[in-house]
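Fig. S4 source data, part A: sequence.
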Amino acid sequence: MDVHLRELRYFVAVAEELNVTRAAERLFVSQPALSKQLRVLERQLGFGLFERVPSGVALTRQGEALLPVARDLLGRWAAGVEEARAAAPAGTLVIGMQTAVGRGLQQAALRRFRERLPGWEVSLRLVGWDDPSGGLSDGSSDVAFIWLPVPPGVRTHVVATEGRGVAMPADHRLAGLAEVPFPALRDEPFIALPAVAGPLRDFWLGLDARDDEPVVGVTANTPEEVFEAVTSGLGVVLVAEGNAELYSRPGLAYRPVTGLPPGELAIAWREGDRRPQVVAFIDALRQVATKV
């Protein structure tokens, strides 16, 4: 039986909230995605964890028995990860990324970081959009470049604020426009992030500027999957202005979109994390970002 830490984290959150909707908000995932993962976990275990009550859900006897075990496993894993990191002789800072960073930020910040902590190595880690925390929630990243909005328990410093545009096939009917009004995209199929990305998925579908449900052409988990789907004609996708150049490729057109608030790229870290390597990188990035 292969039960993942994420499933245990979902179980504990629902057990503590006793309400799937509140737990989904706390976990920064959609309610349907959370309910689906709970059903998967119950099928793997072979017994139910919750039963429905008028106020939400209640733990079954099996759920009550499993809860302290799940909490203990999650706590021991988090402690083990920190002990393993501390055991590294030279030290390694793991930087999670959901997309390429560019913008003159990362390289300059890394130079300053190495000047301050010359014995430390840096590991860059691409994290799928199924983890909107960029690897912070499960401890696999020390810091992360992620797009707002972010999950609870994460602190951020915004390093870039950029308009949102649309990437589409070069022969798309709207590619001849200098700017695309957002209403012109309402009936277009969109490339969407996974449902577990929650509010981050909603933001890049433009739900903050529309009162109807978007048409989803395909779901993608990485930038490569997104732009392959676009050039294949499966849909369009909202893209931050700075990412348009980073992901430019033949057969792809980018146009600014009017009628949308901008996107915000941030460096993020776990709330309360004051380890020297984390503080050093954040300080280095803040110094660089003020000059870009």
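Fig. S4 source data, part B ends here. The chain has a mean pLDDT of 89.
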